[in-house]
């Protein structure tokens, strides 16, 4: 009697193909070698390793190189087989890998930064090495001469970098939650625009030059897609991680976005699915859905003879304060943010304490149900 075979649908979950072990500290960068079963890794344990897949199916190191300082960033250009390694002391070292991936020769050292290097990109067409660091700057250097061509400073640590090779535009994310678009020239640069939307520091960026889409992940556990090519300011907010989003990769062939976070989770987003654009934030003293006043809107509560919305106990989570407004009354500062009313928190500060830092204080809890990025500029 023949057995009946039931076909099972393929799982959409990622499948673990292999696991590489050997580093003694955190791995800062892992890059696939195109057209080879190999991986190049850099780690905080001050080592660079080139792993090749053997006949047994396991990866073994064919190159093991020890650096003088922990490795914080790395870039690899396959056509020229050049490796650029950023270190914790701010220096970037260039190496050349042999054709059989069994030897790596030192080329030169670039004094690019005064602090930890956070990201590196190499452009073969211009022979530029562009990098960002914790010294709050982005720098670009000539790989032919080793000279510094230009440098631009930010108000906070520059944490990540993406580069458009055709137009020489650089996207730099920083710890203040902003993304700065720069036009790099031979000896100068110009700021094109600044993208604001995240509530935490920018941890990673990914630029798709074909569709001209920019993806950003931040410590607020969210991902934002910026439609740069559309020139209409269109943005999409993706939420699903429970911790800091630390890496992004967009697959152009399947139109999927792969993201991973500090909680160990990996998410695959289908970007072909139609999604609603995040609405713009508006200022209002009453709910947009029911037009009832919020508890600070004394005038409307008096006119309508109703209590403030904070006293509503029937469906409190449906009412949202779609505004960010700051009020000063004598010696008390008030600050509000867009949150469900039952989760809205505030704290008042006497003017004597506020004069010390010149800013009002407010407790703004993270809202996991938020559907649009804020713009508090």
Automatic annotation (TrEMBL):
<feature type="repeat" description="WD">
    <location>
        <begin position="195"/>
        <end position="228"/>
    </location>
</feature>
<dbReference type="InterPro" id="IPR020472">
    <property type="entry name" value="WD40_PAC1"/>
</dbReference>
<feature type="repeat" description="WD">
    <location>
        <begin position="238"/>
        <end position="279"/>
    </location>
</feature>
<dbReference type="InterPro" id="IPR042234">
    <property type="entry name" value="WDFY1/WDFY2"/>
</dbReference>
<dbReference type="GO" id="GO:0005769">
    <property type="term" value="C:early endosome"/>
</dbReference>
<dbReference type="InterPro" id="IPR001680">
    <property type="entry name" value="WD40_rpt"/>
</dbReference>
<dbReference type="InterPro" id="IPR015943">
    <property type="entry name" value="WD40/YVTN_repeat-like_dom_sf"/>
</dbReference>
<protein>
    <recommendedName>
        <fullName>WD repeat and FYVE domain containing 1</fullName>
    </recommendedName>
</protein>
<feature type="compositionally biased region" description="Polar residues">
    <location>
        <begin position="352"/>
        <end position="362"/>
    </location>
</feature>
<dbReference type="Pfam" id="PF00400">
    <property type="entry name" value="WD40"/>
</dbReference>
<dbReference type="GO" id="GO:0034145">
    <property type="term" value="P:positive regulation of toll-like receptor 4 signaling pathway"/>
</dbReference>
<dbReference type="InterPro" id="IPR036322">
    <property type="entry name" value="WD40_repeat_dom_sf"/>
</dbReference>
<keyword id="KW-0853">WD repeat</keyword>
<feature type="region of interest" description="Disordered">
    <location>
        <begin position="352"/>
        <end position="377"/>
    </location>
</feature>
<keyword id="KW-0677">Repeat</keyword>
<feature type="repeat" description="WD">
    <location>
        <begin position="20"/>
        <end position="51"/>
    </location>
</feature>
<keyword id="KW-0967">Endosome</keyword>
<dbReference type="GO" id="GO:0034141">
    <property type="term" value="P:positive regulation of toll-like receptor 3 signaling pathway"/>
</dbReference>
<dbReference type="InterPro" id="IPR019775">
    <property type="entry name" value="WD40_repeat_CS"/>
</dbReference>
């Amino acid at each position: 009697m023949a057995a009946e075979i039931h076909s099972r649908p393929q799982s959409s979950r990622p499948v673990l193909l292999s696991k590489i072990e050997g580093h003694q500290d955190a791995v800062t960068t892992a890059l696939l070698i195109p057209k080879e079963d190999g991986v190049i890794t850099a780690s905080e344990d001050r080592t660079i390793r080139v792993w090749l897949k053997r006949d047994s199916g396991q990866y073994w190191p064919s190159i093991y190189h020890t650096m003088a300082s922990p490795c914080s960033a790395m870039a690899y250009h396959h056509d020229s087989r050049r490796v650029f390694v950023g270190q914790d002391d701010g220096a970037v070292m260039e190496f050349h890998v042999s054709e059989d991936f069994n030897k790596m020769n030192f080329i030169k050292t670039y004094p690019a930064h005064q602090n930890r290097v956070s990201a590196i990109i190499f452009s073969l067409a211009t022979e530029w090495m562009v990098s960002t660091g914790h010294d709050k700057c982005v720098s670009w250097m000539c790989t032919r001469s080793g000279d510094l061509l230009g440098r631009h400073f930010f108000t906070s640590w520059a944490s990540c970098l993406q580069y458009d090779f055709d137009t020489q535009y650089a996207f730099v994310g920083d710890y203040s939650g902003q993304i700065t678009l720069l036009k790099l020239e031979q000896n100068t640069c110009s700021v094109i625009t600044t993208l604001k939307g995240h509530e935490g520091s920018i941890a990673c960026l990914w630029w798709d030059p074909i569709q001209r889409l920019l993806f950003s992940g931040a410590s607020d556990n969210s991902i934002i897609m910026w439609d740069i090519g559309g020139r209409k300011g269109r943005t999409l907010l993706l939420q699903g991680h429970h911790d800091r989003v630390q890496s992004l990769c967009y697959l152009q062939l399947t139109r999927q976005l792969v993201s991973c976070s500090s909680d160990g989770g990996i998410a695959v987003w289908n970007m072909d699915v139609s999604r609603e654009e995040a609405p713009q934030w508006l200022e209002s003293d009453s709910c947009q859905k029911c037009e009832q006043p919020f508890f600070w809107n004394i005038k409307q509560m008096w006119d309508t003879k109703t209590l403030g919305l904070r006293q509503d106990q029937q469906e409190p989570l449906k009412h949202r304060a779609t505004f960010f407004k700051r009020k000063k009354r004598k010696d008390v500062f008030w600050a509000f943010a867009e949150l469900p009313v039952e989760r809205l928190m505030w704290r008042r500060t006497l003017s004597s304490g506020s004069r010390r830092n010149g800013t009002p204080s407010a407790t703004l809890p993270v809202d996991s149900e938020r559907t649009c990025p804020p713009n508090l500029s």
